[in-house]
Amino acid sequence: MDTMRSFINVLVLFSIHKTNSENSFKSVPVTVKTYENETVLLPCYVDDTEGPLRVRWYKDTTLLGDSMDAHHLLPPRVRMHANYSLQVDSLVAGDTADYTCEVIRPEPWGPIRQTHSIEVQYSPTVKTIPDDGFVEVRKGEYVDIGCDATGTPTPVVNWKKNGEPLALLEPRSRLRFKAEHRLLAGVYECRATNGVGDPVTADIRVVVLDAPVVIAERSFVHTAIGLRASLAAHVLFAAPPATHAWYRHGRPVRTDDRVVMMVQDNVHQLIFRTVRKSDLGNYTFRAENKLGMADVQFKLTGVPNVASFKVEHALNKATPVSFTLVWEVDSYSTIIEYNLWIRPYYGRLSTEPDSFTTEAPSNRWVKIVVGGDSTEGPIHSAVYTVRGLTPSTVYEAIVTSRNRFGWSKPSAILHFATEPGAGRQIPSTSDYSDVSPVLEELEPEVHNISQAQVFEHVSESSVGARETSTAILILVAILFFCIS
Ligand SMILES: *[C@@H]1O[C@H](CO)[C@@H](O)[C@H](O)[C@H]1NC(C)=O
Ligand SMILES: *[C@@H]1O[C@H](CO)[C@@H](O)[C@H](O)[C@H]1NC(C)=O
Ligand SMILES: *[C@@H]1O[C@H](CO)[C@@H](O)[C@H](O)[C@H]1NC(C)=O
Ligand SMILES: *[C@@H]1O[C@H](CO)[C@@H](O)[C@H](O)[C@H]1NC(C)=O
């Protein structure tokens, strides 16, 4: 008997174990992705040949209905069919949930359950943070903006600033950053996408307040008596709005029929219809708001503009001992003379411990005076052949020009090289990139070297620094000889 009972228990245990698994359902769990107003039918299909079953449906953990309890009212839009399927009509967002069908069977079998899901899909919507889509901060303050996106499935939010995608490590709905620069201002656009319907976008305008930013379109303005001249200041940034004024010698410029102010597209001009000698001089344009001010300086002058060397292979004739330089200068008055400054080019000086000398080579500029022309201009061209140079050597040159108003600022540096040939050779370096030439006898000036460069010949020779100094002395001597 005992053996028999044990056997039955084992059988029962076995059955419970077996029927507890979802295998006894003839339906399979489903996830229904659907849309608003649709109808969904969730199955709860089990073998009920052994008599009627008791079925309960749960939405997440809330009991919806019970097949044996007619008094339990199903919520509106929800029905349970005779075959235990659950039907939900006219779907709304709130119907997105897990739905569990629980089958309660006669003793000794326990309940079995199967869970389905409904996902009511909605195209995204966004709400900006702040609501009005407008943020104004002072420079250095924090900007905190966002886009609350809703929709099913959960939308992904991406950003653009002024039309350019922002490279964020991962999509996010909130942006918080320090407005460290006025250029962080702009229109931030968020775009929410979830694959349902069209993506939606919303804009947030971020304004960064700071002192104004102004640049001079040309700070050195060349003119001559009787001509029209204009000084132009470009206000790049003014938030909050700035007030503007032109000053001369600390006092506001007095305008009349001849001297007028004009403003167009943030460009402020001071126009001299016919320049008088008394107009020449320094001017200041000032933009000012409550966070600060910006000054830009101008010089209205009769002295020539900065000359520029021309790089044209047909004209820049090189021999082992000479080189022909060509330059141009704008001047409304006759050029009286040019000063051409020449020196061998060494690039970076050696700092090797085994170099022959710790003395820098005497790399001084040599001045050559070149006569002007008699033309009125405004464009003056000059050609000059420098002689007595060393073969296979790189030189640098600068030119200044003088008219009756005075000397121009120095030109950009030109690098040029002589042809290879017999004779002594001065070493030169092939590394020209980090040279910062210094003008010794002229006022220092930032030169834009890329404007004029001739690198046709790069000498490969390497001679000790002591020989170099000697060679320079010879060169300097030759140059002085040429000039005199
Ligand atoms: C669903 O029905 C409501 C009410 O009739 C309607 O306003 C809504 O636009 C419908 N939604 C869709 C996605 O058709
Ligand atoms: C259950 O009944 C409903 C309504 O009669 C029917 O539409 C559905 O197909 C039935 N489901 C199964 C699995 O038989
Ligand atoms: C004009 O400004 C320059 C510096 O930009 C200064 O060297 C010069 O002395 C000023 N001239 C006058 C007349 O103030
Ligand atoms: C130098 O001049 C070139 C050509 O005029 C310009 O493109 C470049 O921006 C200038 N560089 C600097 C540092 O001014």
From TrEMBL:
Residues 307-421 form the Fibronectin type-III domain. It holds the Pfam family Ig_2. The keyword Lyase does not apply. Residues 23-103, 124-208, 212-301 form the Ig-like domain. Keywords: Immunoglobulin domain, Repeat. SMART domains: IG, IGc2. This is Ig-like domain-containing protein. It comes from Chilo suppressalis.
